[in-house]
From TrEMBL:
DNA repair is among the record's keywords: no
Pfam (any one): HrcA
Lineage per the UniProt record: Bacteria, Bacillati, Cyanobacteriota, Cyanophyceae, Coleofasciculales
Native organism: Funiculus sociatus GB2-A5
Membership in a protein family: Belongs to the HrcA family.
Alphabetized UniProt keyword annotations: Repressor, Stress response, Transcription, Transcription regulation
HAMAP family linked: HrcA
SUPFAM superfamilies associated with the record: GAF domain-like, Winged helix' DNA-binding domain
Gene3D superfamilies: 3.30.450.40, Heat-inducible transcription repressor hrca homolog, domain 3, Winged helix-like DNA-binding domain superfamily/Winged helix DNA-binding domain
Reported function: Negative regulator of class I heat shock genes (grpE-dnaK-dnaJ and groELS operons). Prevents heat-shock induction of these operons.
PANTHER family xrefs: HEAT-INDUCIBLE TRANSCRIPTION REPRESSOR HRCA
Protein's UniProt name: Heat-inducible transcription repressor HrcA
Amino acid sequence: MSKQVKLTDRQQRILWATVRHYIATAEPVGSKALVEEYNLSVSPATIRNAMGALEKAGLLYQPHTSAGRVPSDSGYRIYVDQLIKPSEVLGRQVEELFTKNLNLEDGSFEALLRGAAQILTTLSGYITLITMPQNRTTHLRHLQLVQVEPGRVMLIVVTDAYETTSVLMELPPLTSEDTEPDTEIVERELQILSNFLNSQLRGRSLVELVALDWSELGREFQRYADTLRSLVSDLIRRTTKPASTQIMIRGVAEVLRQPEFSELQQIQMLMHLLEEEQDKLGPLIFELPTPEIQGVTTLPQGSRVTVRIGSENPLEPMRTCTLISATYRQGSIPVGSVGVLGPTRMVYENAIALVEAAADYLSDALTQTA
């Protein structure tokens, strides 16, 4: 998640230039290099002062006392969230390349995934990870919201297999912090909400809870929206865990040439994860786009792309890596994910565009076969 740091325009420009230079060279960045290569219109002393402030804020650090500075994970996070946009030009080029070189009619969807993985690896230079589509057949039979005590509500779901799942959640205040909720009003509103959810979702896959149009809730019920999203997120995690996730992996040899992977132990840990522990890797790559994606912020403006940078990755072998992933869908239902894994010193605007374009292409291809 983005570190809440308030940067001046000058500090933003210098952070952007520092990250760009380090991505290109893999060498610590000094003020002299920024003066020579970027039109920052300030003196080396001003740049040094700004870099010192960025270091104090935890966005840059010095690997050695006499060296220049390199971005921290927090610095990359600010760069990704605030200072760049995915390359729209590259995104369009990738979609054209997929359309030209891949054809579902010539073979199976698995063959299409293999082709897409190879193209992504060739274009990015990173490891490509694509999960095979998951078959999720659990459907909703009935749903009910029940107040169990003042301020607490339970969501009860009955599936088409007559299995029952319940999730407990705190209710938001009805009027103000000082007003005790009226039990009858709450029960009446929960019944109306239950009717709304049943009318929208009865007979549909539980995964389609993600695609529910919450804007259809009347204004007087909007205060429940965040609570309902949280309930739905918890419910999906409980009921839609695939038994195993088969992952297609390409491009390991290419990425291991990067200087970040010069230590043998680090390579061995990453290779062991990719080859022997896909059960741990799978849930990180294929995540449903709920409002609670493991505490990691997705990109703004409705993007489906998730970016995990360095220490944001929960698995130790990935702590020096960035994982960029996006779900692909069959219709409105997320069934798989495509991602790239590489060093944190990644060309983010290109990698994000590649992943998003691939997810869009695979979604279109899979939906057409339905």
